[in-house]
């Protein structure tokens, strides 16, 4: 059988594992075909003293999207995944691309990771890009994986208790039948020492706790979204995909911490074995 095709539209770095540089490997290792379209190309993550590279020029990015259409990628893709977007021009082009792809390929599943901020740094993309994510991309999304800060920014609701999530989910105005994965939640009743992902959708709500590791690393959310897509592409349901992604993300983070790395590490033998046998 032809492996599922994923179009992955997000950042790329020379050194380290964030964006496509984190998400593509697990999808490929699990047996999916991946077409990578970078929104930015940087030398490294912003955690280093210097940062080289830039957002893709809009005309160059548009040309890559045109090439994807010429090769028939949106028509045969099973998934589109979007992550970090570095300019308002590219954000608009991504929204147009996803809308057209979904119109021409009704079976396409769009996973939107609305990468825009977190509790400690706050909003780290321009407000104009956040507006495109809110009004242009999330209404197209079949699955979205924001963290509590991003949910709060997008909806104006503070996420403190479980009941806040269904209300926020409604405010996101996602596609009919869409599902929300609220990632990295510490709610009032989350067990001590744990983080949880909460999945909401037409079938209700499920909670997926995982031990909280004492680390915070660039690329965690990108890897998580890639692992979810890998598991979905191998036939797992969303709850199973979330739990697989949690386990493997934790494994990658623990490996990185043991090596003193600044971002997730994908070299752990058990991590790679889990992908090959998914």
Widest β-sheet, arrangement of strands: 3-2-1-4-5-8-9-10-11
> What Rg, in angstroms, do the CA atoms define?
17 Å
Helix content: 40-55%
- Per DSSP E runs of 2 or more residues, the count of β-strands stands at 11
The assigned structural class equals alpha/beta
Describe the structure.
- The protein is α/β, with parallel strands linked by helices.
- 41% of the residues lie in helices and 21% in strands.
- A hairpin with a 3-residue loop joins strand 6 and strand 7.
- Helix 1 packs parallel to helix 8 (220-233).
Q: Summary?
A:
With 278 residues, this protein is of the alpha/beta class. It is built from 10 helices and 11 strands. Helices cover 41% and strands 21% of the residues.
Layout of secondary structure:
Elements lengths: L4 E9 L6 H10 L3 E10 L10 E3 L2 H13 L2 H4 L2 E4 L5 H17 L4 E4 L4 E2 L3 E2 L3 H11 L5 E2 L3 H8 L8 H8 L7 E7 L8 E8 L2 E8 L8 H14 L4 H22 L9 H8 L2
Parallel strand pairs: 1-2, 1-4, 4-5, 5-8, 8-9
Antiparallel strand pairs: 2-3, 6-7, 9-10, 10-11
Helix pairs in contact: 1-8, 2-4, 4-5, 8-9
């Amino acid at each position: 059988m032809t492996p599922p095709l994923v179009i992955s539209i997000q950042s790329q770095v020379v050194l380290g594992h964030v964006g496509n540089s984190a998400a593509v490997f697990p999808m490929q290792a699990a047996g999916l075909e991946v077409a990578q379209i970078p929104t930015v190309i940087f030398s490294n993550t912003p955690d280093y003293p210097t940062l080289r590279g830039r957002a893709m020029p809009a005309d160059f990015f548009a040309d890559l999207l045109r090439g994807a259409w010429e090769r028939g990628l949106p028509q045969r893709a099973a998934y589109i995944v979007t992550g970090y977007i570095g300019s308002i021009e590219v954000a608009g082009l991504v929204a147009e691309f996803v809308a057209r792809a979904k119109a021409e390929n009704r079976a396409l599943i769009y996973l939107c990771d609305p990468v825009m901020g977190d509790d400690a740094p706050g909003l780290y993309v321009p407000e104009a890009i956040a507006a495109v994510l809110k009004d242009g991309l999330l209404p197209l999304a079949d699955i979205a994986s924001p963290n509590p800060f991003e949910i709060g920014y997008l909806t104006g609701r503070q996420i403190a208790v479980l009941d806040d999530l269904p209300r926020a989910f409604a405010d996101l105005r996602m596609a009919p039948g869409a599902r929300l994965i609220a990632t990295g939640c510490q709610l009032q009743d989350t067990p001590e020492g744990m983080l949880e992902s909460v999945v909401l959708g037409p079938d209700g709500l499920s909670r997926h706790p995982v031990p909280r590791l004492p680390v915070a690393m660039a690329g965690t959310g990108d890897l998580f979204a890639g692992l979810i897509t890998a598991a979905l592409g191998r036939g797992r349901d969303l709850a199973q995909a979330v739990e697989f992604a949690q386990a493997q993300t934790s494994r990658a983070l623990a490996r990185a911490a043991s090596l003193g790395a600044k971002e997730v590490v994908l070299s752990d033998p058990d991590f790679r074995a889990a992908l090959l046998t998914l």
